[in-house]
Structures are given as C-alpha cells and as structure tokens.
Amino acid sequence: MSEKSDEMRSVWKAVLTYLKLQIENIRLVSTEKSAILLSTGVVAAILGIMLAFALFFISIGLVLLLATALPIFWCFMIMGGIYILLGVTLYLMRTTLITDPIARFLSRLLLDEPDADKQQKSL
C-alpha cells in the first residue's frame, strides 16, 4: 500500500509542477504578445502623425504650384476635392485596406502558437 501511496504522491507532484509551468508559460506568452501589440500601436501612431505632417506640407506645395496657373482660391478648392476623393475611396475600400490587415495581424499575434523551432534558431 505504501508503494501506491508514494506513486500517487509523485504523480500528484508531477501534475502540480506541470500546472505551474503552464501558468508561467501563459504569463510569459501574454506579456510578450501584449508588448508586441503595444509597440505596434505606438509605431503606427507615430507613423500616422508623420504622414499627416507630410501630407500637410505636400498639400501646401501643390497649392503653391497650382497657384502659378490658377487663382489661389481654386487651388485650395482643388486640393480639398482631392482629399474628399481620397476619403471616399478610403471609405469604400475600408475593409480591404484597414479591417482585413488589422484582423490578420491580431489573429496571427493572438491565435498562432509560437514556433519552437524558430525561437531556437533565433537564439
């Protein structure tokens, strides 16, 4: 009877050790994925701000270029029309250009299991 009791204790210890390791693995993976998600969001925000500044200066340059041939009022109206056209195009293609890439990124980040072979090779 003592042998079965010792065997049960060792099995129980192994199960507890396994559960502790699984919990630690979940903590590490969730921390890693949260860091990737947060850093991607920060990079996207910074790039968005830089793109907004670039578009602003390009718009001013195009207005000044058009002003050599047209009155300044019509140059601003043309640039406004271009931005409206770009906005409508973006709205019509929002699923293809925005929703699908974000959904693919999040599903790849959150649902794909880390490949142990890739991690070992990178070390």
TrEMBL record:
InterPro entries according to UniProt: Phage_holin_3_6
Keywords noted in UniProt: Membrane, Transmembrane, Transmembrane helix
Membrane keyword on record: yes
Lineage: superkingdom: Bacteria
Pfam families with a match to the protein in the record: Phage_holin_3_6
Transmembrane segments: 35-65, 71-92
Protein name as catalogued: Phage holin family protein
Organism of derivation: Muribaculum intestinale
